[in-house]
Design brief:
Elements: H1 4-9, H2 22-28, H3 60-73, H4 79-95, H5 102-111, H6 139-143, H7 149-155, H8 176-183, H9 186-197, H10 207-226, H11 235-250, H12 256-272, H13 287-293, H14 305-319, H15 330-342, H16 348-358, H17 362-373, H18 378-381, H19 408-414, H20 440-445, H21 514-611
Helix pairs in contact: 3-4, 4-5, 8-11, 9-11, 10-11, 10-12, 11-12, 16-17
The protein binds a DNA duplex (20 and 20 nucleotides) through α4, α5, α11, α12 and α14.
Region (Disordered): 1-59, 117-173, 390-513
GO molecular function: DNA binding
Protein name: Myb-like domain-containing protein
DNA sequence: ACATACCCGACACCTTGACA
DNA sequence: TGTCAAGGTGTCGGGTATGT
């Protein structure tokens, strides 16, 4: 993770125009500016008049510098922290003479930077840029004026030459698909053969390349359709995988963007013919395309606000009510509360299960948890729910800042940016004012509503910034090329698309290419191995449990014997104590008799003396 | 007063088409 | 072909209207 010193270094006075998050500036000790900082000299990034295009290919130096900055600054950051820090990266790039906009840097990050091995806990990401330069004398390294060169070297990892085999590194963050591909030595010869066919960039795609691209995409999309366990990928994520696969399997060196473009082209060609020879596009379709296809069901069902209001009005005029509130039955409510106590962020699976169990819509289930997170319910109001408490991922979250008072509204509207503060320590938590009733991991899961510095956004000042806990640098960022696997869960195919976009299938695939079958088979084999491993663990633990139970039984008998002895001894002790007490009493009586006799003796002696 | 449903904006991520 | 800007989409939190 980037230290504060590093961040300070990245907020040079030489760039006071940079509209960094005010709180970050405060945290970094940058010269304070009055109010919100103007959005700099890059006015042409987002809306409005089209800016002059600056479509200049990233040079190797630029990419190296960008990657180096990413390594130096972004490792260990959460996604949202990264999104903010990208502004810093942009500024640093400018200070180094590389004039790239924030969005350019952002796209560079999402396009390739995030797939650097540093963000995958090791080598062999789905796609990797040029290896990090450890040579401080290199032009790029020298331009990146790091105050902590040792850290830079430490954070850079070896060149991700070859992906490890599944057996060697089953959970190292590499995707199954990549690991399998790299492990398959038979493809080496194919690569050699293919190199002659597809030597590199700036060359028209050969039919061979198109064919292989089509095979891979079709294979994966078919799996998505036919295998429920396969996570669905967005085009971009898929093309990252496909690009790597083309290289690993066939030696075809094509960028994800190139793959995407060609694939789209193939799909468009297919759609244009009555009997598409080329497989249909299964990737998400644009609205226009859907409209052209005339499939209304494929069009987004998102209503406009006007439509919503109209529907609301219609309902109200018809029924007298805007909507009907359906109350949860006590049993259902209890079940929901139990789930909410486990986590306020149930998985999609859990939500679906609850919807099934409670015969409710997914929407209502989600609303319940949303409201629960907002503290709308009595059971969440005064209780620090154990949300995520069982989740080791967030177990080390620090508690909220103490002493925060006031409603959410007042916090949201009353706070100023300087209450957002990047911690200066390793535990990069912000000092965030939050309502005391708010579950802490609410903040851990989201980073919403915060000013994002110089992006020109119109976030109102004072919005609460939620910060995620520091990401384990060993874990992949986006997409997780391998699921975190603390329990040895089955390896999964690459990450699904985060959205639920409708995928269109206008035809059918009759076959999956053999290599893809290999991949699936290997994935199944991996999973079976995991299951076998679990079985062994279960058997082992059962054996130990039986032994322990036997020991308990033996110990129980010994304990019972001892208890009997103890009881007898206690009875003996009691008898002895009674005997002692009785004898002590006798002794007391004897003392009294002795004293009495001594008194009588003295009396008689005095009488004798008197008579004399 | 509390529960529920809905609205809205921010955000991350993605797609698309234009351009060099 | 790679890069860019623009815009779309889904999710979420915060806020609030409405019902019970």
């Amino acid at each position: 993770m980037a230290s504060t010193d590093e961040l300070k270094d990245l907020s040079p006075d030489a760039h006071p125009h940079v509209a960094m998050d005010a709180a970050i500036q405060t945290s970094l000790g940058a010269p304070s500016s009055t109010g919100s900082t103007p959005p700099s000299s890059t006015p042409s990034t987002s809306h409005g008049i089209n800016p002059p295009r600056n479509s200049v290919k990233w040079t190797g130096d630029e990419k190296d510098a960008f990657n180096e900055l990413c390594r130096k600054l972004l490792v260990g950051m959460t996604t949202s922290q990264i999104n903010r820090a990208l502004q810093t990266v942009t500024d640093r790039m400018k200070s180094m003479g590389y004039h790239k906009t924030l969005q350019q840097c952002r796209q560079q990050w999402y396009g390739s930077g995030r797939f650097l091995p540093e963000f995958h806990g090791g080598p062999a990401g789905p796609r990797v840029m040029s290896p990090p330069s450890n040579d401080d004398a290199s032009p790029v390294a020298s331009r990146i004026n790091t105050p902590n060169a040792a850290l830079q070297v430490e954070k850079t990892s070896p060149t991700p030459a070859a992906a490890p085999t599944p057996a060697a590194a089953p959970n190292n963050g590499a995707t199954t698909i990549s690991r399998v591909a790299a492990a398959d030595s038979q493809h080496v010869q194919q690569r050699v053969n293919a190199e002659a066919l597809a030597p590199g960039h700036n060359k028209t795609w050969s039919s061979y390349e198109r064919e292989k691209l089509s095979e891979l995409v079709n294979a994966y999309r078919s799996e998505e359709l036919n295998n429920g366990t396969v996570q669905k990928l967005g085009n971009q994520a898929l093309m990252e995988i496909i690009s790597g696969q083309l290289k690993d399997r066939h030696g075809i060196d094509r960028t994800p963007a190139g793959c995407s473009k060609i694939w789209r082209k193939l799909a468009q060609e297919a759609m244009g013919s009555s009997a598409p020879a080329i497989p249909p596009m299964l990737s998400p379709l644009s609205k226009d395309t859907k409209a052209k296809l005339g499939d209304a069901a494929l069009l987004t069902n998102t209503k406009t606000n006007a439509q919503n209001k109209k529907a609301l009005q219609a309902r109200k005029s018809a029924t007298g009510k805007s909507y009907q509130i359906i109350r949860w039955s006590p049993e259902h409510k209890q079940l929901l509360i139990e789930e909410a106590k486990k986590t306020l962020y149930p998985s999609e699976e859990t939500i679906n299960r609850l919807a099934d169990e409670l015969q409710a819509t997914v929407k209502r289930i989600k609303e319940f948890f949303s409201n629960a997170r907002s503290g709308n319910y009595s059971f969440t109001k005064n209780v620090e729910l154990g949300d995520g408490a069982d989740d080791a991922e967030y177990a080390d979250m620090p508690s909220n800042s103490p002493g925060t008072k006031g409603s959410r509204k007042s916090l949201k509207r009353g706070r100023t940016d300087d209450s957002i503060n990047l911690d200066t320590d390793d535990d990069d938590y912000p000092l965030v004012l939050r309502p005391p009733k708010k579950p802490r991991t609410d903040a851990a899961r989201t980073m919403r509503n915060a000013p994002t510095s110089a992006t020109g956004d119109d976030t109102p000042a004072g919005k609460i910034k939620m910060i995620l806990p520091p990401r384990d640098p060993a874990l992949p960022l986006i997409p997780p090329s391998q699921p975190r696997n603390p329990l040895g869960e089955a390896p999964s195919l690459p990450r699904k698309s985060p959205t639920k976009k409708v995928r269109q299938s206008t035809g059918s695939f009759t076959s999956i290419d053999s290599q893809s079958l290999d991949r699936v088979e290997r994935w199944k084999a991996d999973t079976l191995l995991m299951i076998k491993d679990c079985d062994e663990t279960i058997a082992s633990r059962k054996n130990i449990k039986a032994q322990t139970l036997a020991e308990i039984s033996t110990d129980d008998a010994a304990a019972a014997t001892l208890q009997t002895k103890i009881t007898a001894l206690q009875q003996q002790l009691l008898a002895l104590t009674n005997s002692i007490n009785a004898k002590k009493s006798t002794v007391g009586d004897l003392d009294a008799q002795i004293n009495k006799a001594e008194l009588r003796k003295k009396h008689h002696q005095l009488a004798l003396e008197y008579e004399d």
